[in-house]
Amino acid sequence: MxxxxxxxxxxxxxxxxxxxxxxxxxxxxxxxxxxxxxKHFPRDKTCGDGLTxxxxxxxxxxxxxxxxxxxxxxxxxxxxAHGRELELQWPTxxxxxxxxxxxxxxxxxxxxxxxxxxxxxxxxxxxEVTEPLMDGARLAGATIRDVESGETTxxxxxxxxxxxxxxxxxxxxxGTARNRDWxxxxxxxxxxxxxxxxxxxxxxxxxxxxxxxxxxxxxxxIFPVGDGTINxxxxxxxxxxxxxxxxxxxxLDAYAHMIADRWGIxxxxxxxxxxxxxxxxxxxxxxxxxxGYVVVGDAAGSVNPFNGExxxxxxxxxxxxxxxxxxxLAGDGDAAIDRYPGLLQDEYGQYFRVARxxxxxxxxxxxxxxLSRVGIRSHTLMEWVLRIMANLLRPDEIGxxxxxxxxxxxxxxxxPRA
Length: 418
Ligand SMILES: Cc1cc2nc3c(=O)[nH]c(=O)nc-3n(C[C@H](O)[C@H](O)[C@H](O)COP(=O)(O)OP(=O)(O)OC[C@H]3O[C@@H](n4cnc5c(N)ncnc54)[C@H](O)[C@@H]3O)c2cc1C
Description:
Elements: E1 4-13, H1 17-28, E2 33-37, E3 50-51, H2 53-61, H3 65-68, E4 72-74, E5 76-81, E6 84-89, E7 100-102, H4 105-119, E8 122-125, E9 127-135, E10 138-146, E11 152-162, H5 169-174, E12 177-178, E13 184-193, E14 201-205, E15 218-224, E16 229-237, H6 248-263, E17 275-280, E18 285-286, E19 289-290, E20 293-295, H7 311-332, H8 334-338, H9 340-362, H10 365-375, H11 379-389, H12 398-414
Parallel strand pairs: 1-2, 1-11, 2-8, 5-14, 11-20
Antiparallel strand pairs: 3-7, 4-7, 5-6, 9-10, 10-11, 12-18, 13-16, 13-17, 14-15, 15-16, 19-20
Helix pairs in contact: 1-4, 1-7, 2-7, 9-12
């Protein structure tokens, strides 16, 4: 039995990128928003810490441009494979900037949470959302528990934003599920001190191997943090037949040995133990709404299957969700919420569909090897690949790109499942 009772227009479950952005935009719309986060800031989150131009745009729109500029800024991607490398600058785009940042999540998430509070959101750190409160079939809030004292409070809300991340226990309690036929990823990372910690390029290896030299479907990354360290990790896709047998720690270890001399690291001495996480992707989790709630960020599987980046999509989906919630509260009611899945479909539907197909193709190590061998020889081709993979095509390029998408879809359909 809860000991207290409170009311809010909107309750947000979780204050990672998705929850903090939802809280910020809701507060900006003048909505009374309470956001509950089970941990205390600053808190860490297993991540590559890489912010693409899409994420930078969202942070700037939230008024965080100046604060962001104190962190490590980079200009583009260095792709490496089969002994070659290509440096690819972020493309020019009418909407997105031509640079990204690398910011440790400990700092990034705290920064956005503070911004939401400054905009008027009521943040409860150290408060876990434990149980949905139902009003018949409709979600009407949740019980939150103070993690230290154990005290519980019933928070009644007109709407709830589910932003509790990849495992999304709260979402599951409401009936969300991942489409098991669609790919997902898994990734592992840690940090090393490196003399090259402040380079203006993030690096991606397209030819990761296990310690026996077998090609792996995924990529290795090195993201310079600019604080004396580099974030090094490996991401793999579930479309690979032997996916479940792969020990990601040993793949990361093999990758660290591969890059040790170039990056001046001691593979045996990372800054901390490597940690890993599961990455739902391509909008694979649904439904995206239900009576009284909307689902955002990783809880909705909003991660780009081409590269595993999800911070930008967490910010973006939450901004769309905040807009429909503000309309709902302004008088449109549930009809506004019902528009949310369609808005996501318009924004990401085709892109995610092709990316999921691509994930199926590269699940075949031989094909991945061949594609990377061809790609790494052509600067022009790789510039296109970067634009497509980072979802940074200009509006005038979307026409030709659709043709390329169709071709990619045809290849993907022909490719047998790994
Ligand atoms: C190894 C790895 C590397 C990655 N690298 C990148 C990268 O470089 N760039 C990129 O863009 N993306 C990357 N991603 C993906 C990115 O981390 C996620 O897409 C992003 O964190 C999603 O944000 P979110 O707010 O939806 O979820 P989360 O960041 O997981 O936030 C959820 C929050 O909810 C809180 N919470 C959970 N349950 C409750 C509850 N019941 N009550 C209260 N609070 C709760 C959690 O404590 C957490 O703070 C990576 C992922 C992994 C695993």
